[in-house]
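[Meeting: bench + compute handoff]

Bench side (C.D.) handed over the final construct sequence. Compute side (W.E.) agreed to return the predicted structure before the next meeting so the bench team could plan truncations. Sequence as handed over:
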Amino acid sequence: TARFMQAPSVPYVVHLKPVAMTCASLLWRRLDAGFADPLELDDRSHIGTPGLVSAVRAGTVATVNALGAGILQTRAFLAFLPRIAEHFLGRPFAMPNIATWWCGQPAERAYVARNLARMTVGPALSPNLPFEIDATTAISGRFVGGAPQPDPGLDPGAWVAANGPNLVGQEAVTLSTTPVWTGKALAPRPLMLRVFAARTETGWQVMPGGYARVGRAADTTALSLRRGGSVADVWIVDDTPVPQRPLQPQATAPFRRVSQFMLPSRAADNLFWLGRYVERAEATIRLGRAYHLRLAEAGPGDARVGLMRRYLEQQGADPGDALPEALGRDLSRALRCAEKVRDRFSPDGWTSLSALNAAVSRPRAGIAPGDDAARALGLLLRGTAGFGGLVHDNMYRFTGWRFLAIGRALERARTMALLLATFAAPSSPEGSFDVAVEVGDSVMTHRRRYLIETNRNTVIDLLALDPGNPRSVRFQISAIRDLVEHLPGAEVNGALSPLSRAVLRTETALATGDPTTMDTAALGTLVSDIDAISDLLTRSYLV
């Protein structure tokens, strides 16, 4: 059992005929349970599988070892394992266990103290194997690995007595050796063979061969990959041909569609903010491009340029930088969110986002303010548009996609409302309306719909109230309403949830609004309403 608990360092998925479970996939887990799923367990893990806990909870995957089974690997547990086996199996182990004494019991503690010179003494709750010696392990009464030495005058029995419940004593394990080519000659090196067992209809079957760990040094009392060494597969050659069994599913296999399982709130939160950060970066790119185009055309003394400079500074972007640090910061945050949910959105979208982040991270030397900066920002704009298109066209319409889409829509609606409050204000300098239309990517649409020069009413109508313009605030709020309707809990006992009501109120206000009444104060209220929708969504789903 102790060997079975030490599974290989690379997860294997084994397809078995179900015996006592309904799932057909078995994941052989080697890494620590805390690192297994960065979405629901330790979010610092870079080696786990996002969504694993959700899959286990839904019953679509089983894990061996099961999550939380780490207690079986502690050294103290080995002291009780032989008696536990006899109780449940009615017979002793077929292979002897490593003799282990937990020092939390008086008789065992005294025995370890008397025989300390021929024992390995280590932490009781350590999951390491007996021959994995570290700085907290003592051999023959002294510590190794650079740990503090016990007082030379301290009696070994007193040392064990003082730390008894936290220690286990184990017989010193001397490993077998195997010849290893060192580059000059063959030399003996310690070897551990790890074998694997599979549960079948007729009971447990030990697989022939296994996995060998070979030590770097000749010391046969210690073997740990942390201290170097190598690994090798061990194969058992059969005397007769082995039948070939194809691993690909057969055409006659039954069709089964897996139902969608619940989306963890942490994954939803990352997808939501992934959408917001990408959209925020795109807004910075569009406004920065418009700023540098007018800077090259009219110079820094132009009133529009001054207004745009102040607006960029309010948004945390330095207008003097061709590629503002705020832009790189938003894309870096988007990439961090994407890293945690890579299995939930388009691989091409991930590639596009990574390339965009790399482009912003390159040195900025040689990009001058004005036309050069405008061209550089135009190239980045194609990157954000490419990411949006890939996500829209390639992502399956599941709950995670809805949170990503809501994030983009909320950020776009908020950005447009703030933009209009500044550049469509009655006091804004001449030409500010054109800035708003250009940043809103609606120049051609404005020409077709109004056939007149831009004025405040046409700009407000097109960018705030138009239900057919994908850059308008109303269009985005309507999209959010459609997305929220498909979220769990959109209705409570037949009534709309607080989030659904807030979205509907905002949409209704826009649908019944008029450009002449949508003044700066009303736009400020609209921004507050959008922020309230974001807060309600967070409280309802993301915490």
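W.E. noted at the follow-up: The longest strand covers residues 186-194. C.D. will use this when planning the next construct.
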